[in-house]
Design goal:
The protein is built from six helices and five strands. Helices cover 39% and strands 28% of the residues. The radius of gyration is 23 Å and the shape is elongated. The chain has helices spanning 2-26, 84-95, 100-103, 110-120, 142-145, 149-152, and strands spanning 34-46, 60-72, 98-99, 124-132, 135-140. A five-stranded mixed β-sheet has the order 3-1-2-4-5. By secondary structure, the chain is of the alpha+beta class.
């Protein structure tokens, strides 16, 4: 009796896997993930509020290099994750030649700027902010990439 049950279970399992394989073969876009990145330069000033003495507490500026990473499982009606121009306008258009202390709602460290970017764009899962050569910060929203880490990082 157990042999019959095991054979039936094995046959049903094989049928399910055959269905999944056939479905995947017939549906090219099944389980697709689309990723884009947009790199831009932003000239901006800031004045950090720090718990220790630092020259960064004085007003100063940087030519920041910002890279924004976006992901979607579906393309929009135009066949895009997001329009590159819209992404640039959302970040560069808002921050460029600005005083970051007035533009973002937190102490404008490179880390906080990266966090602000990830929160600003719904499809953005990662932002890398380089304030100068050798000084780079990154923010990654793990909730947006759960189960896809190996594909997007």
């Amino acid at each position: 009796m157990d042999t019959i049950k095991n054979d039936l279970y094995t046959r049903k399992l094989a049928e399910k896997w055959n269905f999944i394989r056939k479905f995947a073969a017939e549906n090219t876009y099944w389980n697709m993930i689309y990723c884009i990145s947009k790199r831009m330069e932003i000239a901006a000033a800031h004045q950090l509020r720090l718990s220790h003495e630092s020259k960064c507490s004085r007003l100063h500026g940087h030519n920041w290099t910002v890279t924004v990473y976006l992901m979607s499982e579906e393309l929009n009606e135009d066949g895009m994750v997001a329009d590159f121009t819209s992404v640039k306008e959302s970040i560069h258009g808002y921050l460029d030649h600005g005083y970051l202390n007035d533009l973002i709602d937190r102490n404008p460290t490179a880390e906080n700027i990266a966090l602000w970017i990830v929160e600003r764009i719904p499809q953005c899962y990662k932002a890398v902010v380089q304030e100068s050569e050798g000084n780079t910060a990154m923010a990654v929203d793990e909730r947006k990439i759960a189960g896809k880490e190996s594909l997007v990082l």
